[in-house]
Design a protein that fits this description.
By secondary structure, the chain is mostly helical. It has a single domain, classed as Growth Hormone, Chain: A (Up-down Bundle). It has 22 helices and two strands. It has helices at 25-51, 53-60, 66-82, 84-98, 100-118, 124-127, 130-158, 166-195, 197-204, 206-224, 230-237, 245-251, 254-286, 291-305, 307-319, 321-349, 352-370, 373-380, 386-402, 405-416, 438-454, 465-471; strands at 419-421, 427-430. The chain has a two-stranded antiparallel sheet with strand order 1-2.
Length: 472
């Protein structure tokens, strides 16, 4: 018989009688809360940098050309994304070999400590180019850690949840990236308003990084209460663990990995980063909206759009994952240009409501492509290689295709946007800022075509049936 469990400590059965719904609804809520909080903290840590890119550009990469300085800052921001797939391979292998819990305990520590240390770094004015090198090293640690974090969280929830509500329960994990971004912006705004613009640009930008130590302590505490998932424990007891998760994932399972990447996650990645980060950077660096107003617009858009993660996750359990993700990609590709034209108009006329409304629409697209994707990825792969096989395409799609949206968009503007410079290298005007959208539109269209033609619906997949197959 299974031991009695409390809400604070999840105890899984030690016998062969492992079935769907092995934990109570109350225990499942605690699992979702703990997993969500830990992942939210990691996203907060990861996105503080992105939210402060304009200020960090001046601190670590000073230049007379503000766009070039900004390009260097988002390039280092991109370094964290570049290494995410390598973290996915490392921690995916670890998660499939040694368990889900130990792996995402390590990842939250790596993320939290490196974020705290960014708040202590010397600037270029103090140590020259060495400051940028140190910043890049810590971004690498963040990226590697995040490469193992997301897969662990969604798998941990999925391997406790019933099959018919997987989209709904994992959608709570999907809110964490946006909510973490929201909290990062909120922390920055509150700090800046309290200490003033000059102090914030000089030293106050460090406070949100240093404050993450308190969030780290909370995340570690919650995850310490977890035990291993029942599905992983069961296949471990039955000696069904993969001997080589990497070889098995990229041997027999390379086709579903490739389809997941190009037919789902690549489009989701560019829609996510265009609808949130590029929106912020566009407001600040192209439309020249002031720091507080631009962040306020994004806060409103994020707050109004976040509930749609839960809505579309719930809906994916009823009508399927594919339909919602396909529609989100298509809508983004078709409407990006007019939406950003409208944002430019709102910026030039000071219409905050218009900018926030269009920003909200961009966030809704994010929820359509992102809410169902966790359940979709979990349902593609068997338990024995799920961590590895899920994490790799996710972090290629988000880390490479999505994470470099700000860098590629800025580079496209500098090359093809008709930038007019002043005598001191400052940007006076940009004749065609919408050329920046060519990249996310192209990737979203690519994913739409591949998804429509080749991606199969996964709704209805019964991951708990593996137990009966092993028992037989």
């Amino acid at each position: 018989m299974a031991k009695k469990a409390t809400d604070a400590t999840i105890v899984v059965p030690r016998t062969a009688a492992v079935t769907e719904g092995v934990v109570s609804a109350r225990q499942l809520r605690f699992i979702i809360f703990g997993s969500t909080m830990g992942t939210l903290i990691d996203w907060y840590d990861f996105y503080i940098y992105g939210s402060l890119a304009t200020i960090l550009a001046a601190q670590f990469f000073p230049s007379a050309n503000l766009l070039l300085s900004f390009l260097a800052a988002v390039g280092v921001f991109g370094v964290g994304f570049a290494v995410r797939p390598f973290g996915a391979l490392l921690f995916g292998w670890m998660g499939d070999k040694f368990g889900r819990k130990v792996t995402f305990m390590i990842t939250i520590l790596g993320m939290g400590v490196s974020t705290f240390l960014i708040g202590l770094l010397p600037t270029a004015a103090q140590v020259g180019v060495f400051a940028g090198v140190l910043l890049a090293i810590l971004r690498i640690i963040q990226g590697l850690s995040l490469g193992g974090e997301y897969g662990g969280a969604v798998i941990y929830v999925s391997e406790h949840a019933p099959d018919n509500k997987r989209g709904y329960y994992t959608s709570w994990i999907q809110t964490t990236a946006t909510v973490g971004f929201f909290l990062a912006i909120a922390a920055i705004l509150v700090t800046r308003l309290q200490i003033g613009s000059s102090n914030f640009s000089d030293w106050g930008w460090r406070i949100p990084f240093l404050a993450s130590a308190f969030l780290l302590a909370l995340g570690v505490y919650l995850r310490f209460k977890f035990r291993e998932t029942p599905l992983f424990n069961y296949i471990k007891q039955k000696a069904q663990l993969s001997k080589n998760p990497l070889r098995e994932s990229f041997g027999k399972n390379w086709k579903p990995i490739a389809l997941a990447l190009f037919g789902a996650v690549a489009g989701e990645g560019v829609v996510w980063y265009t609808g949130q980060f590029w929106l912020l950077y566009y407001l600040q660096n192209v439309a020249k909206v002031d720091f507080i107003t631009s962040n306020l617009v994004l806060l409103i858009a994020l707050a109004a759009g976040t509930p749609f993660f839960i809505l579309f996750g719930w809906l994916s359990d009823r009508i399927g994952r594919k339909k919602i993700m396909l529609l989100g990609n298509l809508l983004a590709a078709v409407t990006y240009v007019p939406i950003f034209i409208g944002i430019s108009y709102g910026a030039s006329t000071g219409n905050i409501a218009l900018m926030a409304l269009l920003g909200w629409l961009l966030v809704v697209y994010v929820t359509m492509v992102y809410a169902p994707i966790a359940a979709y990825l979990v349902e593609l792969f068997p338990t024995r290689i799920r961590y590895t096989s899920l994490s790799f395409p996710y972090h290629i799609g988000n880390g490479w295709f999505g994470g470099f949206v700000p860098f590629i968009a800025t580079a496209l503007i500098l090359t093809f946007g008709g930038v007019v410079y002043g005598t001191k290298g400052e940007v006076l005007s940009i004749s065609n800022p919408y050329v920046a959208l060519a990249y996310p539109i192209a990737v979203a269209l690519m994913t739409s075509i591949i998804m429509a033609l080749f991606v199969k619906e996964t709704k209805g997949t019964k991951i708990w049936s593996e137990i009966q197959q092993i028992s037989a």
